[in-house]
Amino acid sequence: MCTVVIRWSEGQPVRILALRDELTSRPFDDPGRWWPDHPDVVAGRDRLAGGTWCASRIDTGATALVLNRPQRPAAAAGAVSRGVLPLLGVAHGREWPEHVRTEGMAGFLLVLATPEQLVTWDFDRTGLRETRHGPGTVMVTSGGPEDRKAERYLAEFQRADFPQDWRRLVQGAPPRDDPGALVVRHERDGQVFATVFGQLIEASPGRLWLEHSREPWTARPWAGLTATG
Question: What angle do CA 26, 30, 36 make, to 5 degrees?
Answer without folding.
Answer: 105
